[in-house]
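WARN no homologs supplied; continuing
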Amino acid sequence: MKSKGILVLILSIALILSITLIFVSFGLSKREPNFEWIAFSGDLEGSQEVEGCCGNAGPFPEYTMTLSNVFPIDMRGEHDGNIFMNGFGRNMPWAYKVQFWWTEGDTEYFIEIRGGEVHKDKKTKILTVTFNMESCTIWINDVLREPVTITFTIIRDPHFPANN
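OK structure emitted
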């Protein structure tokens, strides 16, 4: 009888320890924030560290972008807004999509560019997308405007500078 009691006590302690380890492992396995350096050069300019960009459903991190003189006068210059970018298509090379939007006063601006030539370095995981004379769709207050043709390059580096 005494041996059954000791066995129940040992199994109870083992069960409590197992449950505790499971809960602790969930707490320890929280993922680190996903930072990367995203840099634009050309008709779109900007470079900054961004957290959590850009899964298919977001998030849509804040980004500061400068638009060149090929854009309408009221859109040129530096803007604080939100960015989304991602590749689409089934096989490499896929096309790439970039969206940027911001608000100034009562006016909402939105641009979208699709296309580009994608190159991902498998060793370094650095993604470079080159857009050459691509059409940039423009919406101002949800009204489609005349597109502009732009050229720019994106570099997405998951190692610089935060992860070095």
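Residues 1-30 form one domain.
OK
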